[in-house]
Write a structure and sequence with these properties.
- By secondary structure, this protein is mainly beta.
- It has a single domain, classed as Jelly Rolls (Sandwich).
- Strands 2, 3, 4, 5, 6, 7, 8, 9 and 10 form a 9-stranded antiparallel beta sheet that branches. Strands 1-19-16-21-13-12-11 form a 7-stranded antiparallel beta sheet, with no helix packed on it. The protein has a 4-stranded antiparallel beta sheet with strand order 14-20-17-18, with no helix packed on it.
Length: about 260
């Protein structure tokens, strides 16, 4: 059985591999760092790849068209995404210092290039009290991707998210879909931290997460917390045999879910 792990991303100029293919069944993650006027060619191979801007400005030529991804930073501007199909090629040209998450899911299906502009993302407030947070759906089931489901979560200082704890590691028709997931964290201020806990059936892992850390979630309930004085962001993406999210809440915390729906 694959085990959860935490990996800190390098931020060297060019493509930085964070979660390698094979660590998860389908998912992998890279960070592409470009300086002004840099050009980079990406080939997706057997993966569908969602490109999410974390900062900067870049033009991407893909599928015979040009797209622009821009963002000051994750804490002040909405995200967007360009989803590239497997066996495709894209050319990136940066207009400023740019950091792009390259979120990949292995797939046998060939899709089309999909652009999700800032105006197309869906923001919502989830939870209540100290587990209230903002969740942004970027590539949801209404976007015609092949495998990837993707979005962003924003924790307030001392707040919790992915709470009540839920999991999605078992196929249970109508109750739970089997999907694996990766979280990629940004922290403000950079010396702050959060925690990522993953647990199930007596097994558990807890990681201290800092700026530019990534955590794999192959199984289990997986709540997140932010330290006091720390605003915490994470990019999350999933893949499985289906693209329908069916998170299954830990029965011990169902009462919180019911209170939030009152």
């Amino acid at each position: 059985m694959r085990q959860p792990c935490k990996i800190s991303a390098k931020r060297n100029r060019g493509l930085n591999k964070i979660i390698l293919g094979g660590v998860m069944e389908r998912l992998s993650l890279d960070l592409l760092v470009l300086e002004p006027s840099d050009s980079f060619e990406l080939e997706t191979g057997p993966n569908e790849a969602a490109i999410v801007p974390l900062a900067g400005s870049v033009e991407i030529e893909a599928g015979g068209r040009r797209y622009c991804l821009e963002r000051k930073d994750v804490f002040t501007e909405k995200g967007s995404a360009l989803c590239l199909p497997r066996d495709s090629r894209a050319v990136f040209t940066a207009a400023a210092h740019t950091e792009l998450a390259v979120c990949k899911a292995r797939t046998e299906e060939k899709g089309e290039v999909i652009f999700v502009p800032k105006e197309g993302v869906k923001e919502k407030t989830v939870g209540r009290g100290d587990w209230e947070r903002k969740v942004v759906d970027i590539i949801d089931r209404h976007v015609d991707a092949r495998r990837i489901v993707l979005g962003e979560t924003f924790n307030r200082p001392a707040g919790w998210s992915s709470f009540p704890p839920h999991k999605h590691d078992t196929f249970m028709p109508g109750i739970e879909a089997k999907m694996e997931e990766i979280y990629f964290f940004r922290i403000d201020p950079v010396h702050g931290f959060g925690t990522q806990t993953i647990y199930k059936d007596g097994s558990d892992r807890t990681f201290t997460v800092k700026d530019y850390d990534a955590v794999t979630i192959p199984w289990g309930y997986h709540p997140v917390s932010a330290a006091p004085g720390t605003s915490l962001y994470y990019l999350w993406f999933l893949a499985g045999d289906e693209r329908e999210l069916r998170p299954n809440t830990d029965p011990d915390f169902k009462f919180l879910e019911e209170q939030a729906n009152c």
